[in-house]
Amino acid sequence: MLTINEVLSFLKKADTYYLATDDAGQPRVRPFGTINLFEGSLYIQTGKKKSVSMQIHKNPRIEICAFMEGKWLRIAATAVEDDRREARKSMLDAYPNLRAMYDEDDGNTEVFRLQDASAILSSFTDPDETLTF
């Protein structure tokens, strides 16, 4: 059985994952790189001025996919904004290189908690591993 720490580790090691959102019925997929564990939940980060933020606010159902070393991880979740300063600071502390563009108090940085989520780790040779969180 897959654990949340294994999901986190996979996404961090993969470095880049792909985030899918809905843009008025048109799927939009883009590379992302932020993933953080805060208070036992997985979080992603973006800027409020970006189209991805607007798409998530309009339809919070997202999917994430990453591929590494012959395995791929897919996550379907609801992205829920966490507007607490502590959540934003935790993300930026985990990714200090983002501080050149973002600050937890800039009014633009936003983090989303992944909830009602299911993760599936697959490969061509091993049985799927799943996690619901």
Q: Quote the CATH topology.
A: Pnp Oxidase, Chain A
- The N- and C-terminal alpha carbons lie at a distance of 12 Å
Report the top-level CATH class.
Answer: Mainly Beta
Helix-strand makeup class: alpha+beta
The CATH architecture classification is: Roll
Shape: globular
What would CATH call the homologous superfamily? Electron Transport, Fmn-binding Protein, Chain A
Mean pLDDT, all residues: 98
> How many strands, what sense, and barrel or not for the largest sheet?
8 strands, antiparallel
Low-confidence segments = none
| Beta content | over 45%
In short:
Helices cover 22% and strands 47% of the residues. It has 133 residues and is an alpha+beta fold. Strands 1, 2, 3, 4, 5, 6, 7 and 8 form an eight-stranded antiparallel β-sheet that branches.
Explain what you see.
The protein is an alpha+beta fold and 133 residues long. The protein has a single domain, classed as Electron Transport, Fmn-binding Protein, Chain A (Pnp Oxidase, Chain A). Helices cover 22% and strands 47% of the residues. It contains three helices and eight strands. It has helices at 4-14, 51-58, 85-94; strands at 17-23, 26-32, 36-38, 41-47, 61-68, 71-82, 109-123, 129-132. Strands 1, 2, 3, 4, 5, 6, 7 and 8 form an eight-stranded antiparallel sheet that branches. The longest helix is centred in the N-terminal third of the chain and has 11 residues, at 4-14. The two termini are 12 Å apart. The model has no long low-confidence stretch (mean pLDDT 98).
